[in-house]
Structures are given as structure tokens and as C-alpha cells.
Amino acid sequence: MTRKEWKIEATRLLAGSDAPALTAQLLLCHVLGIDRVALIAHSEEAVPAEAQAELGTLLERRLSGEPLAYILGSREFYGRDFEVNAHTLIPRPETEHIIEEALAFFDRQGRADAPLRFLDLGTGSGCIAVTLAAERPAWRGTALDFSAGALDTARRNAAAHGTELDFLLADFTRPLPFGEAGFDLIVSNPPYISEEEYAELDAGVRDFEPRSALVPGPDGMEHPRAVAEAARSLLRPGGLFLMEHGWLQGEACRALCAGSAWSHVHTVRDLAGKDRCLYAERA
């Protein structure tokens, strides 16, 4: 079977799933160790028998509903590839708003090259913390997660992108081992999906992505509340707090930063125009 023939057959089998032709291409490139240009340029080359067997296994995984990112073992985020696995969520484009807001805030202050400190609560794959460290090498970050598997993944992603971070295995819903307010930036993409919403999620999410990274409790606000409380305690005056949340949680999350401790509190909307990220400056 040639590469072209395998792609045509896989595309047919994947009909009804997201981007079947692209998925078939990516599976071929992954197994053969080539890029899409080489795949197209040499589409008539035969697929070796051992590669066909591996492709068949991966195709079955995708047909079962497993997300392509887990099958390939990586997902692109802010222009970089990040390892993902059963311990981590798959990075979403919406989360890039946290990166954009953080970079813009400190750029406006002329602190892009300042040795400031940031904290990522619930780092998962490390995509936020690693990206911030890669984009601003002078910044020193701490990536925190309660999952040892996720933290190991974040460490590997940091090393892959040549960034230096501190890693801490801890639960941000409990007192954290930091003394005085010493962070200039606190970011988080915590679990924020309610039990009710979880039941309605796509099966590919429910069946494969870690539930503990999605659902904090019945109403979905349990972890956002804990993150906001940690930010209140650990953020320096003039610092910035950014937290992703669900599209119906904008008002509830803004209320977490009500009062004189915060200023310029507002909600950042995603490209679809939905509420996506809490923005608050420490007064």
C-alpha cells in the first residue's frame, strides 16, 4: 500500500470525525518520521509492513475517540510543541490569552527584561509557565501542580524548550509554602467545569482527559476561589493575576476580586467573543 492509498483509506474510515484527511496525514508523518511536504512529494512510496501495523494501531485508537494529541504525544501551544499524556490536559488555543495579556502588561511597564517572579498554579503540561519563561528569559517562574505525573511532564517540556523553572508538588487549595507576597505575576488555568457541565462534555474529553484537571467540585468554582485567594496573599502590589475560567463564569470570577485589594478587574474575551479569562491587578 502506498502512502497515498493509506491516506485515502484512513480518511474514509475517519469520516465523521474532526479533520479526517489532516488526521490521516499527521498519523503518517508521525509513524514515518517525515513532514507533510515530504509526504506529499513522495506519496507513491510504499508504506513498510511494520509501519502499516503501527498505523493500524494508532488509527484504531483515533476511531475509539482518543484525542489525536494523546496519540501523537504532543500539541502545539503558542508556536511550540508540548508533550501531553494521560496526566495532563491538552492545551487549548483559548489559554494563549493568558500569555498575551501577561506579556502585554509587563511590556507596557517596560519590564519585559526585568527579573520578575511568576507563579503558575496547576501547571499541567507546563504550557503556560514554559511559554512565559521562553518568551521572557529574564523572568523566574514556579510551576505548581498536585499531580506528580503532570509535574514530570512539565519538567520534560521545560527542558525541551531550554527554560529554567522551579517545580513544586503541592495543592493550591491548601496553604502554600511561600512566605510574604513575592510574585509579580500569578497565572492559572484551574479546573472549572461543574459536575453538570462535565456530563455534557464530548466523550473524547470525558473518556481520556484527566477528570481531576477538569472538575473541581459540584459548581465548578471551588478551585477558582482557591486560586483567587492564593493570588490575594502571594501577589505583590502592582502585580497581575490572570485566570482562565468557563464562558459562563465571568461575573462570578470578577466577584472573587472585588474590593480595595484589586484594581482594573475585568474579563478578557476569547476570539469567539466569550468570557474566558479573569484579569486583575493587585492594588
What is the topology?
Layout: H1 3-13, H2 20-32, H3 36-41, H4 49-63, H5 68-72, E1 74-77, E2 80-83, H6 96-108, E3 117-121, H7 127-135, E4 140-145, H8 148-160, E5 165-169, E6 183-188, H9 195-199, H10 203-206, H11 222-234, E7 235-244, H12 250-255, E8 262-269, E9 275-282
Parallel strand pairs: 3-4, 3-6, 4-5, 6-7
Antiparallel strand pairs: 1-2, 7-9, 8-9
CATH fold assignment of the largest domain? Rossmann fold
Return the structural class: alpha/beta
Total individual domains: 2
* Share in β-strands: 15-25%
CATH superfamily of the largest domain: Vaccinia Virus protein VP39
CATH architecture of the largest domain: 3-Layer(aba) Sandwich
Low-pLDDT stretches are none
Going across the major beta sheet, what is the strand order?
Answer: 5-4-3-6-7-9-8
Number of helices: 12
Q: In percent, how helical is the residue content?
A: 25-40%
Mean pLDDT: 97
Order of helices and strands: HHHHHEEHEHEHEEHHHEHEE
Rounded to the nearest angstrom, the radius of gyration is: 21 Å
Shape from CA axes?
elongated
Distance between the termini: 65 Å
CATH hierarchy, class of the largest domain: Alpha Beta
What about the largest sheet?
7 strands, mixed
Give the number of DSSP strands. 9
